[in-house]
């Protein structure tokens, strides 16, 4: 790794993308299934080839078959809304963070309550990342702290605090002992998980950094910014190997960009990034040039909160008003179409 070794508004026109952005044509028939959550869906993650895990304002963690739109299991244990979900793809364990200041571990095949509880933060837990071997968990909070946990014992083995570092998201770097962390102080930090020390801080942006993701090869990370009226609202690509400055920005959203993810390399002829925003649009970008390949407006969805890659051609999008949207990448140029919602 180089040198490291507010409430949703109901006025839909406010969120609609402006007319100069070309939007993908609507799908002729969208499958509608029963909602997985009774309220806004706050975060979503892929668990297996046909399963996803979502958290919501209804305090529940739900495992669904995204291919059939069927909610399979509902896990209840948090006292307030779920803020983040983290899991290792292909495993049976997953983790949820909440406004109740706790992190819970769940087992897909367990019928009882949570398998483990992690207590140590004093404010809402807003960042969550689990190691590839599922033995270590990192959590971050608005209390300016990061905690490193032993998964089996539930014990906090290391805790650090950085002034004004109100954590917004955490993401593990594949194949490395590093995590990327975004913050309300407008910076993106790279942490060495072995000693919980800051290994690098990227140049400060002009707006709060809301979310981050790391490419499968561990070479790049992408972060997204809050904003309003097109000011801010961008996503930014960083190179984790040279760490000097951004590679490019992805500009075009009109409201806060709440989620950003790398799409699988074999999805298209070129490397792609997807973003979701409070403006109700999901956009697909050419990674290296910042060109917008497609834009899909999800009518009636309200602000969009989270994206997750399911397979080489499928993306899930969580929304405030209309549950979870199943999207499909069509053709070789990153065109998006909605196929279902649940």
Task: Tell me about this structure.
Helices cover 1% and strands 51% of the residues. The chain has a five-stranded mixed β-sheet with strand order 1-31-30-29-28, with no helix packed on it. A four-stranded antiparallel β-sheet has the order 2-3-4-5, with no helix packed on it. The protein has a four-stranded antiparallel β-sheet with strand order 6-7-8-9, with no helix packed on it. The longest helix is centred in the first third of the chain and has 4 residues, at 12-15. The protein contains one helix and 31 strands. With 342 residues, the protein is an all-beta fold. Residues 5-22 have low confidence and may be disordered. The protein has a single domain (22-341), classed as YVTN repeat-like/Quinoprotein amine dehydrogenase (Methylamine Dehydrogenase, Chain H).
Please sum up the structure shown.
With 342 residues, this protein is an all-beta fold. 1% of the residues lie in helices and 51% in strands.
CATH superfamily: YVTN repeat-like/Quinoprotein amine dehydrogenase
CATH topology: Methylamine Dehydrogenase, Chain H
Global Rg? 18 Å
Number of helices: 1
User: Per the principal axes of the C-alpha atoms, what is the gross shape?
Assistant: globular
Beta-strand percent range: over 45%
What value does the average pLDDT take? 91
């Amino acid at each position: 790794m180089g040198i490291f070794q507010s409430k949703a508004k109901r006025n839909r026109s406010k969120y609609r993308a402006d007319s100069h952005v070309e939007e993908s044509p609507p799908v002729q028939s969208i499958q509608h299934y029963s909602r997985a959550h009774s309220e806004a869906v706050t975060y979503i993650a892929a668990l297996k080839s046909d399963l996803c895990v979502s958290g919501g304002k209804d305090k529940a963690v739900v495992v669904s078959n995204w291919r059939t739109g069927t909610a399979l299991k509902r896990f209840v244990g948090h006292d307030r809304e779920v803020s983040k979900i983290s899991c290792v793809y292909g495993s049976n364990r997953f983790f949820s963070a909440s406004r109740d200041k706790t992190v819970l571990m769940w087992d897909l095949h367990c019928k009882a309550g949570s398998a483990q509880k992690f207590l140590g933060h004093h404010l809402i837990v807003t960042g969550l990342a689990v190691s590839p071997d599922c033995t270590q968990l990192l959590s971050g909070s608005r209390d300016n702290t990061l905690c490193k946990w032993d998964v089996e014992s539930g014990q906090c083995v290391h805790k650090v605090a950085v002034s004004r570092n109100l954590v917004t998201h955490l993401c593990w770097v594949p194949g490395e002992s590093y995590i990327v962390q975004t913050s309300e102080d407008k910076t993106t930090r790279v942490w060495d998980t072995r000693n919980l020390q800051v290994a690098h801080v990227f140049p400060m942006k002009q707006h709060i950094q809301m979310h981050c993701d790391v490419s499968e090869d561990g070479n790049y990370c992408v972060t997204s910014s809050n904003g309003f009226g097109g000011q801010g609202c961008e996503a930014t690509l960083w190179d984790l190997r040279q760490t000097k400055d951004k590679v490019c920005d992805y500009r075009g959203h009109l409201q806060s960009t709440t989620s950003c993810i790398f799409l699988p390399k074999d999805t298209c002829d070129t490397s792609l990034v997807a973003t979701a925003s409070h403006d109700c649009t999901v956009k697909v970008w050419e990674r290296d040039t910042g060109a917008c390949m497609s834009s899909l407006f999800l009518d009636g969805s309200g602000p969009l909160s989270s994206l997750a890659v399911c397979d080489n051609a499928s993306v899930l999008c969580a929304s405030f008003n209309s549950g979870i949207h199943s999207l499909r990448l069509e053709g070789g140029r990153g065109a998006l179409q909605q196929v279902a919602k649940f």
